[in-house]
Amino acid sequence: MFDKVKKNGTELLGKTNRIVEGTSIVGDIVSKADFRLDGELIGNFTSQGKLVIGATGVIKGEIICNNADIEGEFHGKIKVLEILNIKATAKIHGEVAVGKLSIEPGAEFTATCTMLSHSNTVIMLEDGKGTE
Fold it and tell me: Are 6 and 18 in contact (CB under 8 A)?
């Protein structure tokens, strides 16, 4: 009676997953949709969407995504294929690779930075790991 149609990822765009303040995750997160983190992640994050690290959010690990806004803390390697917006409250430590970069005055940015070519894209593999 009801046919279940498998979503290919484009229907997920515009929908946002959320990890709230006070939540701590140890492990990897893979998401095709947008993601907001106000808690803590110790591990890797891969997404075809946008990642927002809120003012109380902390990530220690590796990030690969298309777009990102960072208000909180990040320690590790981050690869943003399109635009990385670093807000005044952000603290970034590690390695950064971006298509375009915006840093507000007051942000703590202690990182090496590499600008990417426009041909890079994130491809989600069946095992949930991202690649170029």
Answer: no
